[in-house]
Amino acid sequence: MMQQIFNPQENGWKVCRVEGFFSTIGPLWARQTENTWEYGLQVESRHENPLGIAHGGMLVSFMDQAISMIAWSATGRRPCATVQLDTHFLSPAKAGDFIVAQVEVTRSSSSLVFMRGVLRVEEREIMTAQGMMKIIHRSSD
Predict the structure, then answer these.
(1) How much is the pLDDT for 41?
(2) Is 12 left (phi over 0), alpha (psi -120 to 50) or beta?
(3) N or C of the chain: less Cβ packing under 10 Å?
(4) Which range is least confidently modeled, 17-21, 40-44, 96-100, 133-137?
(5) Which residues neighbour 128 within 8 Å (Cβ) at sequence distance 6 or greater?
(6) Lowest mean pLDDT: which of 31-35, 37-41, 84-88?
(7) Confidence at residue 6, expressed as pLDDT on a 0 to 100 scale
């Protein structure tokens, strides 16, 4: 029996336009929940390492993108740069899996935002992360 591939669009997800490096990994999917955003990524064979599982660097890039977008929203759309991102790989993902990133702000100051996130395939956690984002203050701020 062939496994049916998850269709994000049929399940309430919309493509989120991103530019720069992550556009080579995506597409990035997004959906709004009651009080935040979730981000999704469909694992493709091009994301796999030689073991046939999602490459760790791709997963870290996905988490960094999700954390950055939540930090941007939480700071009133101010740009933020990653200062620290600690990750823990818990379980593999493979081509066909739809990974969901859920991120929250744990605290913030006038210059830093502290974040926590998890990547899941369905209910299975595949990676957790804690990060710190530096708020980039422009001269007009």
Answers:
(1) 96
(2) left
(3) N
(4) 17-21
(5) 87, 88, 90, 116, 117, 118, 119
(6) 31-35
(7) 83
Instruction: Grade residue 96 by pLDDT with cuts at 50, 70 and 90.
Output: very high
Tokens 């200062």 -> residue: 83
CB neighbour list of residue 39: distance below 8 Å, 6 or more residues apart: 16, 28, 29, 30, 62, 65, 66, 69, 100, 101, 103
The Cα 58–Cα 16 span in angstroms is 17
124-135 β-sheet, strand order: 14-16, 28-32, 37-42, 98-108, 112-121, 124-135, 80-89
Please tell me whether the overall predicted TM-score, pTM, comes out greater than 0.85 for this model. yes
Encode the chain in three state secondary structure: CCCCCCCCHHHCCEEECCCCHHHHCCCEEEEECCCCEEEEEECCHHHECCCCCECHHHHHHHHHHHHHHHHHHHCCCCCEEEEEEEEEECCCCCCCCEEEEEEEEEEECCCEEEEEEEEEECCEEEEEEEEEEEECCCCCC
